[in-house]
Write a structure and sequence with these properties.
By secondary structure, the chain is an alpha+beta fold. It has one domain. The chain contains two helices and nine strands. The strands form two sheets. Strands 1-2-3-4-5 form a five-stranded antiparallel beta sheet, with no helix packed on it. A four-stranded antiparallel beta sheet has the order 7-6-8-9, covered by helices on one side. The longest helix has 21 residues.
């Protein structure tokens, strides 16, 4: 039996989905965002939780797709370092699957240097709701006929 409850919540820093693990047996909680690098750890031993401001992330995916590596940035990168990482991804990694994001403190938003912007939990919910409504409309808009059931009792 598992003692971890995993859920997805809006990241308090960037607003994109973050993974929340709650270790309910020991009373610990961890929130990690793979988009901006934010992390929050609360343990029973500590009086106050440890919260780390994210400065972005780099997700390297090899061109063959067999290996990947995620790096959460704890310190801001210089323009030169950003350019080096960008060029490294362009030359050595799969640019369709890799991502490179940098947190901009002045805008309080993520800059997506490589990769696509992820959908927020609200956008995912709206998309799934629209899809469910579409399939529900198909089920009730198409009346069933007796011919639709031919062959079910034969087998």
């Amino acid at each position: 039996m598992s003692s971890v409850i995993t859920d997805y919540v809006d990241c308090p820093q960037c607003g994109y989905p973050a993974q929340k693990d709650e270790y309910y047996v020991v009373g610990e909680e961890k929130v990690v965002c793979n988009h901006c690098g934010y992390s929050h750890v609360k343990t029973n031993e500590d009086k106050s939780p440890h919260t780390y401001h994210g400065c972005g992330t780099i997700h390297y995916v090899s061109k063959d797709g067999k290996t990947d590596k995620l790096v959460r940035l704890r310190v801001p990168l210089s323009i030169v370092d950003r350019h080096k990482i960008y060029m490294d991804i362009q030359e050595n990694y799969d640019t369709e699957k890799s991502s490179f994001t940098v947190w901009d403190d002045t805008k309080k938003a993520l800059d997506f240097l490589v990769g696509r912007r992820p959908r927020t939990l609200e956008e995912q919910y709206a998309e799934q709701t629209a899809e469910a409504e579409y399939y529900r409309s198909l089920a009730f808009d198409t009346p069933l006929k007796d011919d639709d059931f031919i062959g079910f009792d034969e087998a």
